[in-house]
Design goal:
The protein is mainly alpha-helical and 142 residues long. It has 7 helices and no strands. The radius of gyration is 18 Å and the shape is elongated.
Length: 142
């Protein structure tokens, strides 16, 4: 019962956004790590805390390995990483958010706040060696 309470208090559902995937994964792994779960239990928990799209995919992948939960769990994490954690995908999303940001007028203070939120996110990602493609922003063209 204590395990269940810890899990429900420490986790949030993944929002299907590649940009937030790494933070969500770190939180999930941090909570699950100390619980001593079996591979099957972790896979079940993983599917439960994923968003709708990846959850369906993961349920199908989990069914492929009914007798080898360790291999199934590795497959689940590998597929999630490929679908949502690929550096190129996240770089592309961050750059497109920045490029497609609408013009800010005097009567759009909310847009200015959105830009204020987006720029530090891109700056932090640019410092991370995981996203080498963002170094492009340091060039004159970028």
């Amino acid at each position: 019962m204590l395990k269940k309470e810890l899990v429900t208090k420490g986790l949030v559902k993944f929002d299907d956004n590649p940009v937030t995937h790494r933070v969500w994964k770190a939180t999930f792994k941090g909570v699950v790590e100390g619980l001593g779960l079996s591979a099957r239990e972790e896979a079940d928990l993983l599917v439960k805390w994923l968003g709708p799209k990846p959850s369906k995919l993961m349920m199908r992948l989990r069914e492929v390995h009914p007798r080898d939960p360790e291999s199934g769990l590795k497959t689940l994490w590998s597929r999630l990483e490929r679908e949502y954690g690929a550096p190129e995908l996240i770089e592309c999303l961050l750059l497109s958010q920045q490029e497609n940001f609408s013009k800010i007028g005097q009567r759009k203070p909310k847009k200015l706040q959105e830009l204020t939120d987006l720029l530090p996110e891109i700056a932090a990602a640019k410092k991370d060696v995981y996203f080498p493609g963002l170094v492009f922003l340091d060039t004159s063209k970028g």
